[in-house]
Amino acid sequence: MRRKTNVSLVLILIMTVLGTAQPVLADQFSDTIEIYKKSEAVKPFFSSAYGYAVFPTIGKGGLGIGGAYGKGQVYRGGKVTGEASLVKLSIGWQAGGQAFSQMIFFEDKRAYDEFTGGEFEFDASASAVAITAGAQAKAGTQGATAGASAGPATGKQAETRYHKGMAVFVHTKGGLMYEAAIGGQKFNFKPLQ
Fold this sequence. Notes:
The strands form two sheets. Strands 1, 2, 3, 4, 7 and 8 form a six-stranded mixed beta sheet that branches. Strands 5-6 form a two-stranded antiparallel ribbon. The chain has helices at residues 2-19, 26-37, 43-48, 109-115; strands at residues 51-76, 79-106, 119-121, 128-130, 136-140, 143-147, 166-182, 186-191. A hairpin with a 2-residue loop joins strand 1 (51-76) and strand 2 (79-106). The relative contact order is 0.21. By secondary structure, the protein is α+β, with helices and mostly antiparallel strands. The chain has one domain. The protein has four helices and eight strands. The radius of gyration is 16 Å and the shape is globular.
């Protein structure tokens, strides 16, 4: 009986986080891109990347069982080429809720084509660099983790380079999430008609 109650509470928490997500407006994409352009660690990627994906808000929550969801757009040559959605389900030690934005840069056509090929999932070694002071994130099939690091407020950020043709950056908007979970970020891509 207690297990059913815990599962019900987790499902309510996930549905609340995902259900309170506001519709994504066009201004949110340009506003999010401007935030990332201000980061010294991200600036070089805007001029060198073949393309990128922007997720203005991703909501994440969990208590033992967790989930995350967000909608984004994919760009090539500064123009929108399609829409993407991110879904993550995880099981393991985790508690809390968080909202963040995420940008994924594609080094070349191969990486862009891999991401836009329909369904894509990060492998266990994929990680994200936080541009927010005091936050660090890693996302992959072994789960997502958070910790402390220096961000723009200190003027220091980790050196970032492409991993398997992709570089991922996150910007924490609010909330607090502790987790060491099993589950990965999965993306679906739908080209513009």
